[in-house]
Design brief:
Number of helices: 1
CATH topology: Immunoglobulin-like
Largest sheet: 4 strands, antiparallel
Number of strands: 8
CATH architecture: Sandwich
Shape: globular
Strand content: over 45%
Distance between the termini: 41 Å
Radius of gyration: 14 Å
Number of domains: 1
Structural class: mainly beta
Oligomer: single chain
Strand order of the largest sheet: 1-2-7-6
Amino acid sequence: MTEQKNIVQSLVMENRKRLVLSGVKEVEGFTETEVRLFTEMGQLTVKGKNLRVSQVDTDTGELIMTGDTVISLVFSDKTVRTPDNFITKLFR
């Protein structure tokens, strides 16, 4: 029998300008308009304007992000990052 662990993840957005996330495992990449990360519950992509990752604590899994405007949050069940090959990186 597979043991189910209790996963607690929170996301707090303030005025569409500041995000505080818990349960972050890895920041895959970020630009001014997009931040891609993996959480305990899957992949999360944040899109917006002038996004900045201001704090990441890998011990607690907390991430703080600010920006002019958060436009969208896209959740996925994808829990493991797949390695990019050279062609994928070239055309990103």
